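Quick review question:
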């Protein structure tokens, strides 16, 4: 059995092909659809078991990074996304997708006791300009908190030379209030962190990605879709051959999501 993945694209997005490739490598069937088509036919979202919001510079990042795309999603697609999450659909939002998911009201999401509101809530976390106010393109060591509830990063150990993911952003500094930071950590919604000494963008508590309370919706600044084969690693020819027989961390994340979607489908 296979599951269908939806990759949403819009003007300015430039990582949709990579995201679609990662889903396919993990065993999913992929359709890439423009946002405006989905806005006209929101019921199309119901046919998918996986969803990806790619990175890039949607609508040129006019006004603010991801703001235009997020505004359109809030207006036209909040209800079908809410329904997708409630039926157990994993959603990944790397880089610009993370910025969009936060502003669209998908992350960090509601408390379980409250349920999803009928209208998207105002953002209570944000992705701000990097601390040094510069765009950085670099491979960065990562780690997963022990109590993370995220289904995408479940069971993945980021260690040694393979424990990295590529980053490429100028507005990726995760910021929010101290009470919200405490809540995210205590509830297991911190899905991914930069390792100590590698927090290049200055994110609060080294947070690189968060999930909603269900663990299904993952927003992160790194690009796991860019590490689905060992030849993408900057030092791949010097890696231990035994290590290269294992699944790269990026691909492992997408396999986790496909396996979850299959289990829900069955």
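Suggested answer, residue by residue:
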């Amino acid at each position: 059995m296979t599951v269908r993945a939806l990759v949403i694209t819009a003007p300015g997005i430039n990582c949709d092909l990579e995201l679609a490739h990662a889903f396919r490598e993990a065993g999913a069937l992929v359709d890439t659809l423009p946002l405006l088509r989905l806005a006209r036919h929101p019921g199309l979202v119901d046919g998918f078991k996986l969803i990806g919001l790619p990175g890039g510079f949607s609508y040129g990042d006019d006004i603010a990074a991801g703001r235009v795309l997020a505004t359109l999603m809030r207006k036209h697609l909040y209800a079908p996304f809410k329904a997708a999450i409630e039926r157990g659909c994993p959603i990944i939002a790397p880089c610009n997708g993370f910025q969009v998911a936060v502003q669209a009201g998908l992350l960090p999401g509601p408390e379980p006791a409250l349920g999803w509101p009928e209208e998207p809530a105002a953002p209570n976390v944000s992705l701000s300009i990097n601390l040094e106010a510069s765009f950085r393109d670099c491979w960065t060591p990562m780690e997963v908190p022990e109590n993370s509830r995220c289904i995408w990063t479940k069971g993945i150990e980021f260690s040694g030379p393979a424990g990295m993911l590529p980053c490429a952003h100028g507005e990726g500094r995760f910021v929010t209030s101290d009470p919200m930071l405490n809540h995210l950590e205590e509830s297991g919604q911190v899905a991914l962190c930069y390792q100590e000494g590698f927090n290049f963008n200055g994110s609060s508590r080294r947070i690189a990605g968060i999930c909603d309370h269900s663990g299904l919706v993952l927003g992160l600044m790194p690009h796991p879709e860019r590490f689905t084969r060992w030849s993408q690693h900057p030092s791949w020819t010097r890696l231990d051959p035994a290590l290269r027989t294992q699944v790269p961390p990026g691909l492992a994340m997408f396999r986790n999501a496909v396996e979850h979607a299959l289990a829900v489908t069955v």
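Why it works: The chain is about 25% helix and 20% strand. The longest helix spans residues 249-265.
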